[in-house]
Amino acid sequence: MKWFGGILVNALLFLLLSYLIPSFVVATIGTAILASIVLAIVNMLVRPLLIFFTLPATIVTFGLFLFVINALMLLLTNKLMGSGFVIEGFGTALLIALFMSLLNMMLDRTLLKHQKNSR
User: How far is the CA of 91 from the CAs of 41, 70, 72, in angstroms?
Assistant: First the structure.
């Protein structure tokens, strides 16, 4: 169930960011959900290999290189999705990766705080 929640949250973040970033286009909510599923699959299959092979760069940059890997995963999702999901360049993908990481972190902290207070 947590996986489906993450899919929906990322789909909503895609829609929000496509509204805020002109060089990022998501055609419909269905496209956002499908792109979120594709991104989840790409993150499960490809991301661990990239992290392994770029571990020295990640260590030297104190983990900041992970944003580059996230941007690459978004660009791969862009290639797999077609015309309804468009990221115009690496800079846009990096910006989306930064925003998605920050927003997901804020949502996670908010949910954890809510769960802690409800006990």
Answer: 23, 12, 11
- For residue 68, give the 3-state DSSP assignment: helix
Backbone φ and ψ for 61, nearest 5 degrees, come out as -95, 15
Q: Residue 1's pLDDT band (boundaries 50, 70, 90)? A: low
Helix (H, G, I), strand (E, B) or coil at 93: helix
pTM: 0.91
Q: Are 44 and 6 in contact (CB under 8 A)?
A: no
Q: Are 45 and 77 in contact (CB under 8 A)?
A: no
pLDDT band, residue 8 (cuts 50/70/90): very high
